[in-house]
UniProtKB/TrEMBL annotation:
Gene Ontology biological process terms from the UniProt entry: DNA repair
Record key words, sorted: Hydrolase, Magnesium, Manganese, Metal-binding
Stretches of the chain forming a coiled coil according to its record: none
Name this polypeptide is given: Exodeoxyribonuclease III
Organism whose genome encodes this protein: Ramlibacter ginsenosidimutans
Transition state stabilizer (site feature) positions: N149
Endonuclease/exonuclease/phosphatase domain boundaries: 4-248
Residues binding Mg(2+): N7, E34, D147, N149, D247, H248
Site location (Interaction with DNA substrate): H248
Pfam families in UniProt: Exo_endo_phos
Cofactor binding note: Probably binds two magnesium or manganese ions per subunit.
Annotated site residues (Important for catalytic activity) in this chain: D218
Catalytic activity, EC: 3.1.11.2
Length: 269
């Protein structure tokens, strides 16, 4: 089973890129962030024609999340992160797909910091930590994936010097990340590639893509039940090289899940 996460940076604007990626890579599950589309503006027909059943929560501006499942309908579990009923930003979606609980998230950017946007980022992160605690030891396999807007360490960025004041590298952001991992989550990409610089985001400035001046901010975390199934993880860098591409590239994991035992018929031996 291949599960991927992709900040599309506008699902309607980047729809051709999304469809090419789905056709070429054929993930079983694709989690999307930053749809930048209202609920009724999501390209449902095009996604269905590509062989994927979508579950989505749209919103104007820089929010919006979706879960696409190839050949099956995702079963919705929840449409918001618990802990703040007044929070109306579309940043979290959770569904069951072929026995795996898939949580798709778009954690707040937090810039500029300090300020209310950074406060919101940390508050949202605290809510995520609380909810994740109920998932890490779940009886079902769980994957927590998306754009976390956190560079975990200086090894996950081409050069931290010019980013020191950015919300993605703040000690508070990194401390939240460490507390989340300490619950027992496996950072799939770093687990399989401990010594390799791997990036998922290259901004549009100063030819950062051309110079591979990237950041790793899109992550896939596996709970204790799912971690033993991890076989491969990586980034589809070619997507970032497309013309007028998103500033993110899809990150993915391949999992070897145990087949469910066949159901015996009533008259079977």
């Amino acid at each position: 089973m291949k599960i991927a996460t992709f900040n599309v940076n506008g699902v309607k604007t980047r729809l051709p890129h999304l469809l090419r990626w789905l056709e070429r890579e054929q993930p079983d599950v694709a989690c999307l962030q930053e749809l930048k589309a209202l609920q009724e503006g999501f390209p449902e027909r095009e996604i269905l024609d590509a062989g994927y059943h979508p579950l989505w929560k749209g919103q104007r501006s820089w929010n919006g999340v979706a879960i696409l499942a190839r050949g099956v309908q995702p079963v919705e579990v929840r449409r918001e992160l618990p802990g703040d009923a007044s929070d109306d930003q579309s940043r979290y979606l959770e569904a069951a797909v072929n026995g795996v609980i898939v949580a798709c998230l778009y954690l707040p950017n937090g810039n500029p910091q300090p300020g209310p946007k950074f406060d919101y980022k940390l508050a949202w992160f605290e809510r995520l930590i609380v909810h994740a605690r109920s998932l890490v030891d779940a009886a079902h396999p769980v994957i927590l994936c998306g754009d976390f807007n956190v560079v975990p360490t200086d090894f996950d960025i081409y050069n931290p010097r010019s980013w020191r004041k950015d919300a993605l590298l703040q000690p508070e952001s990194r401390a939240c990340w460490e507390r989340l991992l300490a619950q027992g989550w496996t950072d799939a990409i770093r687990h399989l590639h401990p010594e390799e610089p791997i990036y998922t985001f290259w901004d549009y400035f100063r030819q950062h893509w051309q110079h591979n001046s990237g950041l790793r901010i899109d992550h896939l975390l596996l709970n204790r039940k799912l971690a033993p199934a991890l076989r491969a993880a990586g980034v589809d860098r070619w997507v970032r090289g497309e013309e007028k591409a998103s500033d993110h590239a899809p990150a993915w994991v391949e999992l070897e899940l145990a087949a469910k035992p066949a159901r015996r018929s009533a008259g079977g031996s």
